[in-house]
Amino acid sequence: MTEIQIDTEYITLGQFLKLADIIQRGGHAKWFLSEHEVFINGELDVRRGRKLRHGDKVDIPDTGSFVIV
Prior knowledge:
Helices cover 20% and strands 32% of the residues. By secondary structure, it is of the alpha+beta class.
């Protein structure tokens, strides 16, 4: 599981995808979420504005598992 460190209270799912080098630009988040399943704490979520906080786990099949620290 890869740890993604943030210095703020939360980041959005779209920001996370860019920070984790899954997408190259923030504008690709909408497309990525329409084409791939993203599970946050075990639940499917497609909202690029979803707030991720410390301790949240993000699983993307065929891409990886991440935890926000």
